[in-house]
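Much of what follows relies on a compact textual record of a protein's fold. Here is one such record, which you should read through line by line:
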Amino acid sequence: MKQRVFSHLRSRLPLLLGALLVALLCALTRPVSSANNRDGLAALLARATGQWVDSTQLVWEPSDGVLMDLLLGRRLFFLAAGQRGGPNDVYQASVRLAPSGQPLGARLIRNITQTPLGDEGNLHGAGRFVVFTTTAYDVVQALSVLDARGTDPGDLPTGFFNRVLAAVTAFQQTGHFAGLGHADIVFEQPPATLHLDLDDSRMVIDSQSDRSVLVFDLLRRTLHGLHGEAPEGGQLSVRQYGAKPFLLWAVDTLREELGPKLVAFIQSTVFGAKDRVERTAYSIANKVSASGSSELASAPKRARDTSEAATWPPAPIASLWSQPQAGEGQWVPAGPAPARSEHPPAFYRTFLRPDRNRPYAQLILIAMDMRQLQLGMQAGYEDPKPLTGPPGSGRLPKEAVGKVVAVFNGAFKTSHGAYGMMADGRVLVPAVPHAASIVIAQSGDVGFGNWPAFKEIPRGVIAFRQNLDALVEGRTVNPTGRGEWGERLAGDSVLSERTALCRTSAGQLYYAWGKELTADTLASALQQAGCDYAVHLDMNPKQCGFAFVSNDATSAPSKLELADERMDINPERYVTYSPKDFFFLVPYQATPAPLGGVQWQQSPGAQPEPTWMPALFEASAQLGSLPVQLTWFERGRVDWRLRAGLQEPRVQGYRPPKFELDAGDREAALYVTNLGNATAGNSYGMAFDGEPSLPLHDEQVTLVVPQSGDLRLVPPGQALELSSTDSAVQLPLLAMAGKISVRASTRGSRVPRAALCVRRDGTVIVASAENDSSDVLALALRAQGCDDVAELDRGSHHVAFSARAGTNSEIATSYEASALFAIGRPMQPHTFRFMPRSPTNP
């Protein structure tokens, strides 16, 4: 009986298989869209994504044949937004097509860009390539090119296992194990619009705003000018993917699939168990009675407060314990040797034992002399994950390659709070109001403070990085009372590898790293070390570390050395291609960069302290056959004093002017230049201590001279506000906003003339030349980055002169003509407390 049944079924097996095939084909070819057109396809995609889909922005990839299109689908790129008119993202889907071309369904739908604050548009396709722009803040952030063939093998990590991990990640992100090739063109001056001319091998890009044209070779992935010259105005970044440690890959993958809370629970459980084992082992091996070093000291004092920048190295730090370990709290030189023998070491290192319950736990501190160093920051190719456009380059800026002396980790992932970052002149993640922030000003100075209540970027800020709330502010630990410092379950046993960056009361920077730290322990140790503002950086193993970099003559990093051998991170990532953001340090360059063909050199004569870092420089600019002498005063290295000439007119009822330098200023005077005197035929005013000595007039340009700080030129017609310690003098205007005035071109006697400008970064430059007009002075200063220029002649036509301390010329305490004195002051670290009051007041 059984044999007859099996025989019967076998005889009808072809018929059954045929019926199943017909049923499968019927199911596959059953249309789910009512229209075989772009609108019907857009409706299908809208239902699948829950987004509004623009039917005019659909780009098909080449077909793999009717059967493959039916069974697996044909790849399609499209734009979708949360609502009509909202910002678009670029999506990808595989759409199954009937032999007639009828859409049957969509699968493997992925949001490729995920930029909620950026608007993707201008979606075009050519062969296997897809092109689109991303606009944010009303300008084009970048032009991006996708290669649907997949990521180029040269952009993948080496090794079979690493490539398997990369393929899994690519499937998560794109729905295909091969992923997508991705290149971005970022513009130095973002245009409002772009015009593209695209075929399947190259793309011509015309920004139209300044008529600059770029050509991108799609196949070779190279960017150049229209005629093959080096590109100007745009930078190409091809996305590559480095090897990721398996632990980090697994955590990121699980977090993506399971959510952050479960991963945080697993991490907390593991770190808690590890801590209990370490504490038990230590208590067995080190009995308290056997080691006085395990006894707490009575309330250790905070490191000595000082505002004197000359305090270097930093003052020792008192230990928490009655018997400090050898070297605890004592600073020793670290890192590369000074570039010159007269320079002190730029880095010092020490350690603390900050945890009262864990005597074995150490906090490593690296002190950085911010008189000699300049801080930079760079975004990684994965994080922070941008909300406005393409990610960061993950590479050192080209101007830092071969110069970088140290690198260290940045802050949290975007998914852990979306804290803001701006780098390379581009906002990747907008600022979070009130968040702890590290900013870089146009001058290069580094600021630490809470972001204000507004999201706008204060004037003069060119880069910033934020994370959480302040660990330390003033003398207060955890001023906001934050209880969660990372995705962890709250509790004393939750320890982790943690890092921070702080500014001390003397203006220097400390990097902090430790393996067994709570945030509260970290904050308390930094406060004890003398930090007046501290920002929590990244945490967890394999994410944190500080490395010193030595460079060879070929301008390539030759050696990277971790500051502590216990740091479990590959520092090469920071000088090759980093997935996460990072900070870097380069030597501070005191000598001004060549500009307009001008080469600067140290000015002969006295220099402010420290003398090993000069602040006054000289150069000669050639305008035709006429040499113009230039003197450069570095911002922050001198104070300025205004003194009236003995022949200045007096006006009854106005404040008596100041004629002579004070004794202390007389000893520190480095330079003086005369300004001439006012006459009966002009109206150039003057003020001392906030009160006029000669009437001030709105139609004149005013040079404001503070008791301490930067000079500033106030243009005619702009409100003049003087503090009670400000002096001011009005001068003739030679240039305003780069435009040369009529006065500058007026011909007269051929005599020595002088002019002054204040650059946007606060640098003061004085120009002098013998000529029959002053236009050469304005032109020479404009070439050095000056917008506004004032002539140093208040009407009396005194012959321009200057004197330098330490040379054959002597500086007097008073002159017949009014004079401006430069007074040397000790060099301060290039840092400040960031406390802006408005978007225009940093």
Observations:
- The first strand starts at residue 52 and ends at 60.
- Residues 418 and 541 are 21 Å apart (CA to CA).
- The chain is about 15% helix and 35% strand.
